Amino acid sequence: MIFDFLYCLALSTVSPLVVYRMARYGRYRRGLRQKLFGIRPEDIPGQEAGEPIGDFVWFHAVSVGEVNLIAGLVAAYRREHPDQPLVITTTTDAGYDLARSRFANETVCFCPLDFSWAVRQTLRTLRPQLLVLAELELWPNLIREATAAGCRVAVANARLSPRSGRRYQRFGRLLAGTFGRLAWIGCQDEETAGRFLACGANPLAVDVTGSIKFDNAPDTRDTPDVHRLARWVGLDPWHQVLIAGSTQAGEEAAALDTYQALSSEHRQLRLILVPRHRERFDEVAALIRARGYQVRRRGEVSPPAEHWPTTTVVLIDTIGELRHWWGVGRVAFVGGSFGDRGGQNMLEPAGYGNAVCFGPNTENFREIADRLLRERAAVRLTTPADLTRFVAECLDSPPAADDLGRRARAVIQNHRGATAKTVRRLGQLMNAPEDLPTKLTRQAA
After folding, report:
1. Are 104 and 239 members of one domain?
2. Number of domains in the chain
3. Active site includes 66?
4. Range of the domain at 20
5. Which CATH number fits the domain that encloses residue 161?
6. How far from chain centre, in Å, is Cα 117?
7. CA torsion sign, 116 to 122 to 124 to 126?
């Protein structure tokens, strides 16, 4: 119960902020019953009338990025296990909306907060055989209660940054048991596996699969979604689009600085901004106007544009479309990398063959960023001013930019396969006897 006490203490501390955000942005209101008290039978289609529907496999993805991550994994698992009931949970409003769209034929709910009573209610409703956490959602009550209920807990595409690893180790006595209860941990690389072991994970449960993100990366611009967005924005073949995606405060200004510095000389240059968080959409729109540009907002209903003037900057104020917008770009800046957020997924723009750059802080994607840099498939910027120099080089030397994009696509093609390996491991966990050691489950591959 110590974690319930700590959560209640933390909630009492931050509750004024929560109330403020609920009032101003509408955040945290949706799914509040499921979050605080757990998923109930009436939340599950087929259980409303008390019909038995069998034991669930439960996939949890905290927000938009994780929902996109598990989309291919869930589809592959569904192909292998067509009759298995699945439930997908998420924590944020944006993640929930995207999950409802991407998993239209599956049950989607909000995940309970890590209060023991909410977790137990959810476990009674779902009776899960397997809980699959995307990347790492280390909730002690959830993992302990699920294990006690006979549900194996796995982590798919596991990542653990050096900073997070050190933080967890400081609370070793509290959290070592949590790591030790994980039945299988599919790590993205050997370094991540070592950090899980240092935090107390069972060595027999730690595996290295590679990153599912390589499998999820696009491999062509020739898709209906990319064509649809290109028509909407008024793209011409001669345009060279700089897209700054998943940006945080300060990064949109850097992209606008670059655009102002280069667009008069390079008439083919266009700019698309995609802020990471929806509550900043209006702020970024105001910033664009303050620079003297017209802003075209994706969220405002409008027909496809006949042309795209240099005086217009496009703002993507919708959720879940960034993956396809990268395909409209030719030069890509991956945001969250000039601040303290640790970067964002750079494989999506790389998959389209964009010339990809990012800032110095990519801790959350360290292995992927380092791999791209080693293969000369991306460029790391030191300061926001470097963005202007990078874009200018791409515009002045299109063959060099194309070579950068080709190397990026080659890196992705050479590292696919993690999804198939993960599905195989999850199937082994489902079919293994309760007393079968994890080691034997792994060796059965």
Report:
1. no
2. 3
3. yes
4. 1-29
5. 3.40.50.11720
6. 28
7. negative
